[in-house]
Write a structure and sequence with these properties.
Layout: E1 16-18, H1 19-26, E2 31-34, E3 41-44, H2 53-68, E4 72-74
Antiparallel strand pairs: 1-4, 2-3
Length: about 80
C-alpha cells in the first residue's frame, strides 16, 4: 500500500524508479506493486489495465540504463 494511503515507508515497500517513471506513478496515475516475498513486479496504467510483459521489459531496460547513469529516485 502506498504511503499516501496509510502504507509504511520502508525499503520493503519501495520501488527504485528513474525520475520519469517516478512522476508517472506520483502524478500520472500509474501504479506498481510487488508480489509479497518475491521479486515479481506489476505495473498498471491509470485505467487499471496491466502493462504487457514486453512493455514491462522495455521499462526495465530503461530503468537499468537510468541506474547506470545515476538517475534513480525511490518512490
Amino acid at each position: 500500500m502506498h504511503w499516501v494511503h496509510g502504507g509504511p515507508t520502508s525499503c520493503d515497500n519501495g520501488a527504485l524508479l528513474c525520475e520519469r517513471h517516478h512522476i508517472a506513478v506520483h502524478d500520472g496515475g500509474f501504479t506498481v506493486h510487488r508480489d509479497p516475498g518475491t521479486s515479481r513486479w506489476h505495473t498498471h496504467r491509470p485505467d487499471g489495465s496491466p502493462l504487457r510483459s514486453d512493455e514491462t521489459a522495455r521499462l526495465a531496460a530503461e530503468l537499468r540504463a537510468a541506474a547506470d547513469n545515476g538517475e534513480l529516485l525511490l518512490a
